[in-house]
Write a structure and sequence with these properties.
Beta-Lactamase, 649 residues, Helix Hairpins, five-stranded mixed sheet, single chain, 4 domains, alpha+beta
């Protein structure tokens, strides 16, 4: 197999060390070059700042006297200074009057804005220009260039030396690391070679070197393993020989056992068929248990839970935990933990069989007495307050002593509660007007009275009859809405503004009150609605606005536009009053059936009006909202889906 450095531990160590050293050397050489560049650049810049003032002072007098020969002499003498590549002087008009080191007639190079070392220049140079002034008057300009060749040469020399030193250090490190890696991994190489020999079947090997370090202890462990393998092979060889002897004797019995084996095979096949049927039946039962809405728990003869169906675990929730293995008492205690604190039904322990009959003389256990009670209802904690119907069956089996059946009857319990509450409220609301009608009718029938008094009583009977009719109509509306009978709703495109005007016009304003203030748009606002049902909803909220606001305060009915649901616009019918208002708690319950903000009985009504409004609007696909503040009034908004104008328009 071809040796690949990065596939061995030694190679990976060497490559990793060389990579780290290469990065560090590159950083070191780069930093050295940067420091050299900065130092020599600062030196050149300082030299330029020292030369410029001296030359400027020496050139002021001859340039002011137009003594260009002296100017040329000063430039020639200054050009001899090391590091100056050229010098040139121009007069105030920009004409060159003297140069040194620069070819005659050749334009001067542009002045460098900033000092830089550019290797592309030949030679590398720093060009500067300095104005020559006398008493603030410009006489000309001195331009000269500093030769930067020695700086670039020094930088290249340092770079080449640094690279050579780095290469030498890397070669030396590679050799040293390879030698160290060889010393470290030599033991591993010997172990690898020995392992390959064992894999090829060479079980008798020379011991590999051992030592006190980790690798040496690994060699010792390998030697122990090698000796153990050799011993096992020897044992297997002898066992094989003994097996061959035994096989000879068994061969003689093989013929005699053939018939018996055939019978066993047939029996095995029959057993597999039976087991297959059992597995199929078990799978069917498991599927039934998983899909069954009713749960059950089975107990063995010792009173411990042996099985709990998935439906039971769904009913009791994750808080109950795994019931399998719990005893009678533990199961009852845990079931009590998930039940409400004050249940009106007996505890779960009452589900145990009743063995209070006297024990027969022969010691046999008497039959279980009938379950008392036969039906146990428990209420679970958590959302919804689920109610479970628990029943027990005693089994005459050695593995199953009894089974508890659990059925979720929350819906039936809730329906019973709602029916009782509904009948209670309905009876209470109907009793008052019926009592008034009966009482005044009895007075009219049995007593003589003036025509005026008689008319007053007839008015009271009429008002109470109208109130009772209104209550019965609200109850019937609620029953129809609960039935969700779609044929009762005829959805068409209606102008919401026209519908509001019609309701307000037909509304019987209470005595001493002003008609509602309308804030309606001139153009139609089409909504999809049932005309009669929507009028009933609007009439209910206008009636409530008058009931809960004092005389002299306005009731305002308006249309609002703009709310969207799933990008679909909606139109809102809004009724606002300035009445007594409601607290946040009352506002949260305003849509509940039979709820009245004024529980004193001074305001007539069943508490069904707002519940009917909510049901009607939701059956329209809309939403009812209420905002109220105690002492400031209430605003109710019915949001309805928009519709297109009727085709006949």
């Amino acid at each position: 197999m071809r040796w690949v450095p990065w596939r061995t531990v030694r190679g990976r160590l060497v490559l990793a060390a060389l990579l780290v050293e290469t990065v560090m050397l590159a950083i070191l050489v780069g930093n050295s070059l940067r420091l050299l560049h900065d130092a020599m650049g600062d030196q050149a810049h300082e030299q330029a700042e020292q030369i410029a003032p001296v030359l400027s002072a020496a050139l002021v007098a001859p340039l002011a006297q137009y003594d260009y020969a002296t100017v040329q002499a000063v430039l020639d003498e200054s050009h001899a200074i090391r590091g100056i590549d050229y010098l040139a002087v121009t007069d105030a008009a920009g004409a060159i009057v003297a140069t040194s080191g620069w070819p005659a007639g050749k334009p001067l190079p542009p002045v460098d804005a900033n000092f830089s070392l550019n290797d592309d220049d030949s030679p590398p140079r720093y060009d500067l220009a300095l104005p020559i002034k006398l008493a603030g008057q410009a006489l000309g300009t001195l331009q000269f260039g500093l030769d930067l060749t020695r700086i670039t040469v020094a930088r290249k020399s340092l770079l080449s030396q640094g690279v050579m030193i780095a290469l030498g250090e890397m070669l030396l490190s590679a050799g040293l690391l390879s030698l160290l890696g060889l010393l470290i991994t030599r033991q591993l190489s010997l172990l690898t070679a020995a392992s390959l020999k064992v894999a090829q079947g060479q079980l008798t090997l020379e011991p590999v070197p051992e030592g006190r370090d980790d690798v040496g202890r690994l060699g010792a462990a390998f030697n122990v393993m090698s000796r153990a393998i050799a011993e096992r092979v020897d044992l297997l060889t002898r066992a094989k020989h003994e097996t061959e002897l035994i096989a000879g004797s068994l061969q003689e019995k093989h013929v005699a056992l053939t018939a018996e084996n055939a019978m066993r095979v047939q029996a095995q096949q029959e057993l597999e068929v039976a087991l297959g049927r059992i597995r199929e039946r078990t799978a069917q039962l498991n599927a039934i248990f998983d899909l069954s809405p009713d749960g059950f728990v089975s107990f063995d003869a010792t009173g411990h839970v042996t099985y709990a169906s998935p439906a039971f675990q769904r009913m009791t929730g994750p808080g109950f935990g795994e019931p399998v293995g719990l005893s009678d008492a533990e199961f009852s205690a845990r079931l009590g933990e998930v039940c409400v604190e004050k249940a009106q039904f007996p505890a779960v322990e009452s589900l145990k069989p009743n063995h209070t009959a006297p024990m027969p003389l022969d010691g046999a256990v008497p039959p279980a007495q009938p379950l008392q009670p036969e039906r146990l209802l428990i209420e679970l904690k958590g959302p919804g307050n689920r109610v479970l119907d628990v029943r027990m069956r005693v089994a005459e089996s050695e593995t199953v002593s009894r089974i508890l059946f659990f059925r979720d009857v929350t819906h039936e319990a809730e329906v019973d509660r709602m029916k009782s509450e509904f009948l209670s409220h309905a009876a209470h609301e109907l009793r008052t007007p019926m009592a008034s009608i009966y009482g005044f009718t009895e007075l009219l029938r049995t007593r003589k009275m003036s025509e005026e008094r008689r008319q007053d009583m007839l008015d009271v009977i009429h008002r109470q009859s109208m109130l009772m009719t209104s209550i019965i109509n609200e109850l019937l509306d609620l029953v129809r809405i609960d039935a969700r009978r779609g044929e009762d709703f005829e959805f068409v495109s209606l102008d919401a503004a026209a519908l509001v005007r019609a309701v307000v016009a037909d509304f019987g304003v209470p005595a001493g009150r002003e008609p509602a203030v309308l804030d309606l748009p001139f153009n139609p606002r089409w909504v999809r609605a049932d005309d009669n049902k929507l009028q009933r909803a609007v009439r209910n909220i206008i009636s409530n606005a008058y009931k809960y606001s004092a005389a002299g305060s306005d009731v305002v009915v308006s249309l609002v536009h703009g709310e969207t649901v799933n990008a679909a616009p909606r139109v809102g019918i809004r009724v606002a009053d300035h009445g007594i208002g409601m607290t946040p708690e009352q506002t949260a319950r305003v849509w509940e059936r039979f709820f009245r903000a004024d529980a004193s009985g001074n305001v007539p009504g069943t508490g069904l009006g707002m519940a009917i409004v909510k049901e009607i609007v939701e059956l329209h696909g809309g939403k009812a909202e209420v905002q109220s503040e105690i002492g400031k009034g209430t605003t109710v908004t019915l949001w309805l889906p928009t519709a297109t104008a009727p085709a006949y328009l």
